[in-house]
Amino acid sequence: MQKINKGLARRRSLKYKNWEEKLVMDGKEHPADYNYYKTDIVMDLYQCQNGVCAYTEMYICVPELFAPSNWVKGKHKIEKPEDVKKTDHFGELEHWDPSLKKTHYWLWSNLFMIHASINGLKSNKAIVDYLKPDMPDYDSAKYFDYDEKTHLFRPNTEIEDEKVRDEIQRMIDHVLFMNHGVVRRQRIEYINGLKFKKQHGQPISVDRFFTAVGVCFQD
Q1: What is d(CA 155, CA 164) in angstroms, rounded to the nearest whole number?
Q2: Mind listing the pLDDT tens digit of every residue in the chain (219 residues)?
Q3: Which parts of the chain are beta strand (E)?
Q4: CB proximity list for 193: less than 8 A, separation 6 or greater
Q5: pTM for the structure as a whole
Q6: Measured between alpha carbons, how far is 137 from 153 in angstroms, rounded to an integer?
Q7: Residue 31: CB partners within 8 Å, gap ≥ 6?
Q8: Which residues are bridge partners to 145 per DSSP?
């Protein structure tokens, strides 16, 4: 699960940002049914996440949707709708802390984009706080190991606390679904494709499964 930079320097949805900050300043609750900025939020999250699911790193959005050219004065706008549709992605908004939905539905720090099927499987299961991928001190290598032979994620074996290792394993298998059969198969095929290109001297461009690829090609 890659580290995600959602800082101000990366954000493009400036009108939504100003709207959200004003709600905070005024002490107002977020209107959950107010969808005016939803597309802005979704596309801004995609560009922060490089178009992949925040948990599985599966590719879930075409880059044309969140391209810089689609932002006009801090608002998302597709100039050539015939080239790409707003539905050309497989993601759904994920609220990291579901309890914040009632009062802070559009809170930027609580939102990620994840694969719709993964979202359905996860439901409202809680994720341990230390695995939140946009935290400044988050480091995937601190919590996860990747086995290049089996192509499975597992808890970092250097973690001494057995309860923490068991907790991370439960997150991997039953909450984040990082080793889900479909995810794993796609990861294997993608990495093998990159290895084939490398063996034949072809250029490699990585656009998904960043954490696993980083382990397999760390030399």
Answers
A1: 9
A2: 999 999 988 899 999 999 999 999 999 999 999 999 999 999 999 999 999 999 999 999 999 999 998 999 999 987 666 677 778 899 999 999 999 999 999 999 999 999 999 999 999 899 999 999 999 999 999 999 999 999 999 999 999 999 999 999 999 999 999 999 999 999 999 999 999 999 999 999 999 999 999 999 986
A3: 71-72, 75-76, 91-95, 111-115, 144-147, 152-155
A4: none
A5: 0.94
A6: 20
A7: 105
A8: 154
